[in-house]
Amino acid sequence: MRALLDELALPVMAAPMFLVSGPDLVVAAGRAGIVGAFPTQNCRTAEELDRWLATITEGLTVDGTTLPWAVNLVTHRTNGRLAEDLALVAKYRPPLVVTALGSPKPVLETVHAYGGAVIADVADLAMARKAAAAGADGLACISAGAGGHTGMLSPFAFTAAVREFFDGLLIIGGGISDGFGVAGAIAAGADLVYMGTSFLASQESLAVADYKQMVVDCSLEDLIVSAGITGTPASWLRPSLISHGIDPDALDDVERERDYQAGGDAVRRWKDLWAAGQGIGAVTDIRPVGEIVADLAEQYQRAAARLTPYRSLEGSTHA
């Protein structure tokens, strides 16, 4: 799995975003030198997923070698299509499989059989320990500042705590919006950085035009974290709530059972109500994934140059 990292131009994964990530984004990310990913639930049927996986595999195969990419599988018992999707994963063999909303156990045997690695999405230390004990090869630690369903821990605190008991692949995500933040996360002990909002408004994103423009136009002050939409804390764009008659400041008074689907009462979650993370301020226009990655790489190199050694404390009066 470490060899996979050596194939990248930048230690970044374009996070799998519900109703946003598709084949064009995954292929563009891979060809730009980062890991592209998408949730299988973005496909309405297994047949459509088959077509997507074929497109991605073809688009990322260069001189007989397939560039790194990932799929995201919901492993919760409510996912009635898990067996079908997992069979297609075995057919197309993505190097990384990210599990969400459940244990990684249901996919381990299948993915390990073809030499792939299983990464478990986790939002707190209890989940991280369970996933590690279940045999996950890596952990994707969702931290404070992430878009959509978000964590509550600082990315740096989360990384340090997980590294005390886990030496596998560690992905950290939450509010990291530029190459400087990527460099900081890697220096702190992460192997890859999840970045979602940075690619939400890319040309290759499946997000509708109004959604992309809202991400460009909004700032940190336009976000609200609330459990009032899905029953679980998530980071929402205030203007998208207001435009559908929802008062963002009254959401704390709403009690909901957990429901992560795209449906809703009067409006549809995720389709009508839009999410974004705290990296939103770095998104200033709609442009290709390749340009976004090039800017991230340039910032990363500038950050690395700043990490010059300070003088040794040996012999210092402060030692």
UniProtKB/TrEMBL annotation:
Gene3D superfamilies linked to this entry: Aldolase class I (3.20.20.70)
Keywords: Flavoprotein, FMN, Monooxygenase, Oxidoreductase
One Gene Ontology MF term: oxidoreductase activity
Pfam family, one: NMO
CDD domains: NPD_like (cd04730)
EC identifiers of the protein: 1.13.12.-
Family according to the record: Belongs to the nitronate monooxygenase family. NMO class I subfamily.
Name this polypeptide is given: NAD(P)H-dependent flavin oxidoreductase
UniProt source species: Gordonia phosphorivorans
